[in-house]
Amino acid sequence: MTLEAARKALLAKPRKMKRWVFLTGAGVTLLLSVLTIFKPTFFRFLDGKIYDTQVRAMLPAADGSSVTDPVIVHIDEKSLAEFGQWPWPRYRLALLIDRIRELGASAVGLDMLFPEPDRSSLSQVKHEIQREFGIRADMRGVPDHLADNDRVLADALSRGPFSLGYYFVFTKEKGATPDCLLRPARVAIIGGKSLKGVPEGLFSAAGVTCNLSLLAKAAPAAGFFNVIPDPDGVLRRVPLLIEYNGRLYPSLSLATYMQSRGITQLALKSGAGGLEAIVAGGTPIPVDSKANLLVRFRGDRLSFPRISARDVLHGSVAREIFRGRTVFLGTSATGLDEYHTTPVASAVPGVGIHAAVVDNILRGDFLSRPDWVPGMELVLVLLCGAISAVLLCWTRSVVSLGVVLASVLILWLASTFLLSATGVFMSPLFPMLVLACNFSFLTFHKYLQEERLLRDRTNELVMTQNFTIQCLAALTETRDSETGGHILRCQQYVKLLATRLSRNPRFSSVLDEETIELLYRSAPLHDIGKVGIPDSILLKPDSLTDDEYREMKKHTLFGREAIQKAEHRFGREIKGSFLQFGKVIAYSHHEKWDGSGYPEGLTGDRIPLFGRIMAIADVYDALISKRRYKPSFTHEEAVSFIVQSRGTHFDPEVVDVFCEIQEEFKRIVREFPD
Question: What 3-state DSSP class applies to 348?
Fold first, then answer.
């Protein structure tokens, strides 16, 4: 490969990595875009929790009091203690709603159901006594209108702006009572061609549990009190219209509001996605395609004035509390009402839900999620995905992390501000998810790519190191041609000995896999110092004189000094490198266990472990190899010599390991002959 080709290859790697990072980011973004459109259940759950958090955060700014706020009259524990258990006789309820009417309420919604006759009526009691005991009770002197509690309640209902509640059912098994009077809403269609007759997508009831015909006919208005929590059990939205038998019926809260304002007709406004608003008396109420109102709850169950029914019946309530205001009557005593979890409270009774709906309509500060919001969320997902992918391709991960965290914070604050200022909920969930996922996946992808590049560079470095070692070893070989096979075989011996020694707990902490590999690669440097020995000594075919032997022993010093000079010029020692290992081996491989070796005469464990391993490898190969100054020994003779030198020349533990694997040494000799 030419220099120019190598340069182009190096430049192409980062470009290729950036391209793959960007494509990965695009894939993650497209996946989350699909999830944004279809929104699986788990993500709808997360959306709901984000909405709840933002609603709670804006409570102090949204909460407050107003003369238009509804009033709740509740039958509480104090009322039951005063007037007896529930259900009360209906004449007492008649007294209660009469008092509320007399105090000037503009409309009263009854969050209670009367599907059966009152069994506590005197006429009913008379009938029961005669049937059960055969006794004819004397009711002379009792006016006819007082003998029937249902008649008393019907008369009271007919005198004021009251709305009765009923309950839709959605199972096929239960149909409507034939004489149910439900009072459907009069509806006009406005705003385009998408709505014709009953809008599609509304909740459609299969049956209804309604009030006695006598009471339903007497009350001027009626509405259902069904509420439908989200799948996580939190009530965030309330249906204002439900379809039944081809007609539309208002909720109790909407019917009561219409009663208080004298509204006789509703208008349905359509948008691109179907129903988008219900117009009541000129007030557009934003709803979704199912006619659900996203309710702005002001706080907990005590958000509205709450008056005990006992106080109303005792006449101890000021007229100013009720004059011109919408009232909801219901039960709140423990066990008498169904409580609902809302985004801001864990237990809100039904009357509190109805009051919150009317409060929203009266104030006109609705929460909504218009048709354009999902499209804008999708645009934000694509935009955030593109930005994060580009950032991670061309900036450092630390910079990208800072931008991603800042973007997530901005998205959250912008979504919260939009909900607080305009009442529009735009979920930041998927834009934040695409930022987080892209950062996570792309950072991981970059890490893998960088790891691959690092691995390639490491391999190149290892190859360079091996090349350097082989060049240095070849330099020694140019001085002594008999060392070529010796160097290769000693590499194999050292690796074999070190690997088996690593099983010994005494050496396992030192001889890990990386150390053994470095030891293997540095083994050829053990005789590098011989380049400093004169040819007259190095190549002498006879035995060396004492002076020549002293000069020969200096090759251990020359080997260490050569590596030290290289380190000095580099500026520092490269700890854990093959040069460090080579320096130790070159200097210490002629030391002997009993201290009779050179260059320092070290004894026992004071001799570096790598030198002790190299000593056996070097001596074994010197024995089995033919040299100009000696014949070759057999494998068995070499093994015998090493065993005899156990504890004098060699480390006893290393000798023991050598004996275990000495057959492998014989194999290496065959594989790497001179």
Answer: strand
